[in-house]
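chain below, 110 aa
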Amino acid sequence: MNRLQIVLPREKFKSLKDKDLEALIKEYLPKVEKTLKAEREEILGEKAKALEEKLREMESEFEELREFYKKALKDRELMMAERNRLRKENEELRRKLEEKKRELENFHKS
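prediction:
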C-alpha cells in the first residue's frame, strides 16, 4: 500500500489525536474529490477558452493570408498581361525598326 504523509500544525494534531482518522478521511474524501474535480474543470475551462481564442486569432490570420494571396494572384495576372502587351509592342516596334532600316538601306543603295 502507498504511504501518505500529512503534516499538521501541533494544535490540529492534538485535536485529532483521539479521533478515528480513517473515518475522518472516508468522510472528507468525497468533498476533496469534488473540490479537485471542480478545480480541474476550471483549469480545463480556462485552457479551452485560451485555445478557442488562439483558434480565432489563427482563423483571422488565415483569412488575411487568403485575401493577400488572392490579391497577389490578381496582381500576378495583371503583371503577366502587361508583360505580354509589352512583348507584343516590342515585337511591333522591332518589326517597324527593321522596315525602316530596310527602307534606309534601299534608299542609300539607289
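DSSP finds two helices and no strands in the chain. Residues 18-109 form one domain.
thats it, cya
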